[in-house]
Please model this.
Amino acid sequence: MRPQWQGGGHAEARPAGGKGGRGLSAIVEFDSVGLRYGTGAEVLRDLNFRLQKGGFYFLTGPSGAGKTSLLKLLYLAQRPTRGRVQLFGEEISDAPRAALPEFRRRIGIVYQDFRLIRHLSAFDNVALPLRIAGSSEADVEAPVREMLAWVGLADRSSARPPTLSGGEQQRVAIARAVINRPQLLVADEPTGNVDADMAQRLLHLFTALNRLGTTVVVATHDISLIKEMPGAHMIRLEGGTMVDPTGALKNPPQTGWVEVQR
Amino acid sequence: MLSWLFASSSQRRILGRPAGVSGPTPWLIAIMSFSMIVVAAAGLAVSNTAGTIAKSAEHRYSVQVPDGARNLPAVISALRSARGVSGAEAVPEADMRATLKTWLGSEADNPDLPVPAMASFDLAAGADIAAVERQVKSAAPNATIVAHRENLRPVLRSLRVLQWLALGLVALLAAAAAAAVVLAARGALDTHRFTIDVMHGMGATDVQVTQLFQRKIAIDALVGSAAGAAAAAAVLLLFTASATALGELTGGVRLGLADIMLLLLLPLALTALATWVARTAVLTALRQAL
Model:
């Protein structure tokens, strides 16, 4: 892999591995946020936090803690049932539905199950965000080729997802998520389906992207992955709420904690 | 405005469908288009027939002379001298007896049968029928004038009912086609739900997603409508080639240029309807999701 990609897009350049602090502008703000599905119990409760622009965040917690639900709020697949969510400095909790696509184009998503479109080639999968954003075909070719080379799949551009290995599919999914240089990258267990070596390589991709200014949020159970990013911040969820950082997760000690609004 | 019809190959690939026309929708639209055009043609032919009959009867009158042939020459003379009257002629007795044979059989030829005398005439538009009637009654006091349109009113009413029935059937077929398109659009949405979700996640607008389906359904509808129209035209030409069949169907009335233009517009209208319905159905379904 060649992490020297410098393609255009939404993200702003910033020093790598930024630390949380009130002095930096927030890209995400949650204020007393709760989420329930239908008439069930709340799966997320009283979430108060802010993520700084250009930060690198790990979202951890046991299965069923609400990590995926929190990510859904971040990438606008769900609206909070209560509380206030701000993205990119704008209130989106009750934003009109027609306004959401513009926000979504500034967010890259890496799904746990990749969510690649099976009948499209790797090239077309990666090109999809650009085409949705209205880029002409002439403007799609070069960035997609460059991006596929960046994730080490230059020679697999015409392959369809079912013919790719799990790691290759994951890299296509990542290439697709970052082709637009999103301001916010959200990844749900991105290393859950790949071996340790591939997990390291994927983390390096995220790090490179973070250095280019993208705020990265990675949901993971993988402690070793977290250890690799000493400058990253952590969000730990248990039972749908954020928990005391000094409690359940003490490792890695070098990791900073997400700023929690009191 | 119609740029959505000209999607690039990359846009067409997104839904992963085979190129060109496929699936049951074009067949369904073709059947609807065929039925609509045939029914509409029949309705227009009936309308033209009713119009022709009404026009021919509009100024035509009959004079019934109960006193028989004795007063008929005086009645004819009175008619011919009346203002606005033309074509005043006595109905030959042989014709009257031939008509009566329908009910009386051979008795209609009995010379003792008192056959009523009858004359018919045309009255110019705006002429005073009351004045004509006064002149006729001066010649034959018991004579009565009957407007042909009064006799034909039940027939014309039936033809108008048939005409409205044809219009109703065309509307019903259009509604059925629209319902089929809604089902097809919803089916396509369900089939491609995954792709749509992924596209929405990347910031695709409802209109962008809708255009992928709208274009496909518009092409299916256009091809189906054209095929149905071609089949209907062949059937109608076959009927018009057979004078007997045409006579039975339409009373010998042919379709005019305006009628043919109207029929040619039907497939285009059906295509526009299908496209609009598909767009509305897809947009409505998409709006139910975030």
The longest helix of chain B spans residues 148-191. Chain B touches chain A at residues 8, 10-11, 13-14, 16, 194-195, 197-205, 208, 287, 290 (CB under 8 Å). Chain B has a mean pLDDT of 84. The longest strand of chain B covers residues 117-123.
